[in-house]
Design a protein that fits this description.
Blueprint (H helix, E strand, L loop, with lengths): L6 H20 L5 H5 L4 H4 L7 H15 L3 H9 L8 H18 L9 H10 L11 H8 L1 H13 L6 H14 L1 H17 L7 H14 L1
Helix pairs in contact: 1-6, 1-7, 4-5, 5-8, 6-7, 6-8, 6-9, 9-10, 9-11, 10-11, 10-12, 11-12
């Protein structure tokens, strides 16, 4: 799929992705990122040598509040690393988001307007609490979005992929963030109900089963 994106699309999409990464670098930590850092204070102050105690306490706290959403598990590990480690992930998330938006919308990558349309869609999408430059946003939103969009791509092109790949992708999406997985699952279920008279590749059902298991 990514090989089908032509240079006309790649250039503005890449510039947009880099700009989003630089926006992250320009802002201080706030919102959820600071909330997650609560248990890390002794580590940042040099009072303890290892961040693992803070990581474990953060995981335990979120098990009691949101059942350890996978995006938060991975994000917690990133708190012990330099912030610049997250910037490429932020850029990749927006690049993949832009490309998948265009492809699922049926925009031709040869069109000079395709990238502009997809970027406008991404740039003006409602952002959670306005925390675009929040590091926590990277894992919970800018990476969850391409995960969800690609699940739709897999559903629409089920004949190209194996059942195991479909199931594992669905599992990752379901566990990653329920706020993205549940609406996608509902949409796929509705599409399946509408198309039930047509030949239905069982691999689509494996994708949906993976999402269900991840949500559970």
């Amino acid at each position: 799929m990514f090989r089908s994106i032509k240079p006309r699309f790649w250039i503005p999409a890449a510039i947009f992705a880099v700009a989003m990464a630089l926006s992250l670098a320009a802002f201080v930590d706030f919102c959820d990122t600071l909330w997650f850092m609560e248990y890390f204070k002794p580590y940042f102050r040099g009072e303890v040598d290892s961040p693992w105690g803070a990581i474990w306490e953060t995981w335990r706290f979120h098990w009691l509040t949101d059942n350890v959403r996978l995006s938060n598990v991975i994000f917690t590990l990133s708190l012990a690393l330099p912030e610049w480690v997250d910037w490429p992930l932020f850029a990749f998330g927006f690049l993949a988001w832009t490309i998948l938006t265009a492809r699922l919308a049926g925009l031709s990558p040869r069109s000079p307007y395709a990238a502009a349309a997809a970027i406008a869609c991404v740039a003006f999408a409602p952002m959670w609490e306005g925390c675009m430059a929040d590091e926590c946003y990277i894992y919970n939103y800018s990476l969850a979005t391409p995960l969800a969009l690609y699940a739709i791509w897999l559903y629409l092109h089920a004949d190209r992929y194996g059942s195991a790949a479909m199931f594992l992708w669905g599992l990752a999406l379901g566990w990653w963030h329920e706020g993205f997985a549940a609406p996608v699952l509902a949409g796929l279920a509705a599409a399946t109900a509408i198309w039930y008279r047509r030949p239905l590749p069982r691999k689509r059902l494996w994708l949906m089963a993976g999402i269900c298991l991840g949500l559970l």
